Amino acid sequence: MLRRALLAPTPRSRALWARRGLSLRCPLDASTQAMLLRQLYLAYYEERRFERAAEVAAQTVELGVLLDVAHQDVARALQALGDIEGALGHLRLAVRTGPPSRRAFHYWTLGSALHLDRRYDEAIAALTRAIRWGTTDKALYLGHVAAIQCERGKRVRNLRALITQLAEVPAGHGYGRFVLGLLAFHDKQWTEAREYLEAFIQRSTTGRMALAIALEGEVARARETLALLPKDGEPVPASHR
């Protein structure tokens, strides 16, 4: 049942197989139960039934298996419901309960959520911890901090070097395109900013449904930034001359 849920082509069929697996009378070990619950969670999340998704993820938390992942899932559902404080609380719990190998990721996710909520000081504090714990994705975290510093009106002198560094590593793809677009915008590299942000929007809105929903805040922010870019023949915005 778990295998069929994992391979299901639609949220409806994923939920069907997950429920069947959970309803079997044979004893289930906690790990298998948690994985079945996560497939049910994903089905509800992709159908935008966020309250049910949060309830299912909370059941996974109670199992005590993969706690950090379960807290991340609850946070995504709560964020989609507009419960930012609730989401931040679960993201902080993901940091505390996750293994050291995932701690940088959880701090970065927390920082990203705080950034979208324009809580810049808290976002920078979380991302600074991600930098300390990070290994291969440090360029992404450093770039994200710089983008937030620029957004809050601070002058960052090494933007071009940060852009080059991030663009040359795997972290510069996917979410990295969002950060690169913000950095290029603040560096007044209008063409690059447009290319990065449009690539991020294209990738984020045409891939997996769960990822598209999770990145709706970043996509909205990318579109806001694109709207500020000067079109051909138009003057540069006064705030960026």
TrEMBL record:
Lineage, top ranks: Bacteria, Pseudomonadati, Myxococcota, Polyangia, Polyangiales
Domain of life according to the entry: Bacteria
Record-given protein name: Uncharacterized protein
InterPro entries assigned: TPR-like_helical_dom_sf
Organism this protein belongs to: Chondromyces crocatus
